[in-house]
Amino acid sequence: MALEDLSQADLEQELAAATEAYGDFAARGLDLDITRGKPGTDQLDLSAGLLTAVAGDDIRSRDGVDVRNYGGLEGLPELREMFGELYGVPADQLLAQGNSSLTLMHQALSFALLAGTVDGDAPWVGQPRRIICPVPGYDRHFTLAEALGFELVTVPLDDEGPVLSAVEELVATDPTIKGMWVVPMYSNPTGISMSEERTRALLAMPTAAPDFKLLWDNAYGIHHLREPHAPMLDVLGLAADAGHPDRVWVFASTSKITHPGAGVAFYGGSEANIGWFTGHLGAASIGPDKINQLRHARFFGDAAGVRRHMSEHAALIGPKFAAVIEKLEAGLAGTGAARWTDPDGGYFITLSVLPGTADRVVKLAGEAGVKLTPAGATHPYGLDPDDAVIRIAPTMPSLADVTAATEGLAVCVRLAACEKLLAQD
Ligand code: PMP
């Protein structure tokens, strides 16, 4: 029976049982961390060959370019082709750059601030500016936009993407709404993927700002955990069909494919956007790290090589996701105290607990030795108005640790729910 349907006496009994279970859990003296979406060491080892893929005097790219020297602002063509195929972007509309897609997002927004966009009439700086943040979302998107002076405006996210009516209402009349974050596949943190219908609608909708942008952060586009694979949409083709070819800036990186912080990041867009981006970038750089790009091109060989590599990742982390789901079900099914996502890809599981208890759950877990992402981190300014969303990142700890951590987490959720319901009576 759901906790909220229990009599006062039964609820008190549940509280006593949960308190005892919590005490037992804390007594295990664990020291576990399921906060950040980092790959585990075994995943990093999958890319060990990368470190020796360019050696000695074998330093020429496919076209005979000596990668040790300056130049090639757009990135190595062989890598742009390989990842263009994977992300559904024509190679000449995809730039291969440095080690971080977040940096590219920061740069694109900075260029828009300082110089305006291809379809706008003025630089964004000096104007009031707002950006739509679907929630729950990725905390670093929020921090990045806030650091550049954007006001963060939330819309809810459902199973197909940002709720269209909420987005339409904002963009239709408010020219200060300059853009929206989107994690189109296996989103951080809910794991949902955008439907084609929702995508088409976002690309077609009228916007009061002529230079409204979708920041299409496909960080998890090829990070499938199991079938069915979410489809890779031809977002640039769809944007052109919708009559807004310049509306989308595509981002991706190999951070969770090879080595985070030492990978290759990509920027994709219409021909006009590519010209715009490289035009500004050319003032900042003589070219990206082509040695690292050649390492990646050689290590994978082709797009099929990347896909094989991603299935090796899935084999390592799939069991961790399955363990989290199993322990949440074992500890919480039928209690009505929580819901959780069971994603087909990506890096996260979202746990939605009884409103008003997320912060308490995170504190309880922390005191018992399980570090969780702070409650609220999935919302702009760290404020989840319902205090209900917790992000679980199962990849980095061992399978045994993630299993133990989730067992404990389920106890904390039950305990916090009992406390809350009793306090309401
Ligand atoms: N976007 C999303 C949605 C992410 O979850 C992450 C990593 N946590 C990043 C971007 C970071 O990408 P990068 O390492 O390429 O800067």
UniProtKB/TrEMBL annotation:
CDD domains: AAT_like (cd00609). Keywords: Aminotransferase, Transferase. The keyword Aminoacyl-tRNA synthetase does not apply. The keyword Protein biosynthesis does not apply. It comes from the Bacteria. One of its GO terms (molecular function) is transaminase activity. InterPro entries: AspAT_Ic (IPR024551), PyrdxlP-dep_Trfase (IPR015424), PyrdxlP-dep_Trfase_major (IPR015421), PyrdxlP-dep_Trfase_small (IPR015422). This is Aminotransferase class I/II-fold pyridoxal phosphate-dependent enzyme. It comes from Brevibacterium pityocampae.
